[in-house]
């Protein structure tokens, strides 16, 4: 399964299954750790899906015995933990330090990399997965004086690295809905904008990418209270048919991020997304609007 979904996703799924088994066994985390003769922090890392954890078969079996797992759970968890040991290539973001890639964003990068579909709305700017280097540098330079040049370059490099997921085999499907204002707001000058909009047109040639424009003529719409967000849906475990990770909503803030995964929260954003899809132009009309905006900046 690890050739289809990210190791981070599998580990988080394993962690949730172990939490469920421990809860069914009426054990606290501390009680379980003592019985297993493991540090509570170690058990916590297992349950959190921490990628630093190495699952030894003997340890997994001890946990399954302690929790009284049935044969189906045992088979599934032994198989899943074995997959984490099968030499999966280290993900590119593991080479970054905490200062380069803060933990709050590193989590999103790993989940984004494992998603089956990414549904993204932007009211102010081009989404990171679709930005050119010049556009990304301008965006990461704001607000003036907040970030030094070295940090800006690191952020831009991470952003460009993330884009590789759109061209890999079994790429997630990205649908981006952009407010029309995004096409006309001059970021970095006319040349930067013309290049950026032409890049959008190129990217739409990929089967895994759909870009649609929400025109001003759409009037009042559901996204007015949401500003910008990404809705991630994940693949299912072929053994059970259950998603390996619950759907989640991610939104950037100036100094961090917001993660929402409760069913009612995700449901509210899904309603917003459905409304945006109804009001946005189709792909062909969106391409025409992007092309016209590009010509406006390039003078062509």
TrEMBL record:
Family annotation (InterPro entries): Cro/C1-type_HTH (IPR001387), DUF5753 (IPR043917), Lambda_DNA-bd_dom_sf (IPR010982)
SUPFAM superfamilies with a match to the protein in the record: lambda repressor-like DNA-binding domains
Ranges of residues in domain DUF5753: 107-291
Single GO MF annotation: DNA binding
One Pfam family, short name: DUF5753
Name of the featured protein: Helix-turn-helix protein
Organism: Pseudonocardia kunmingensis
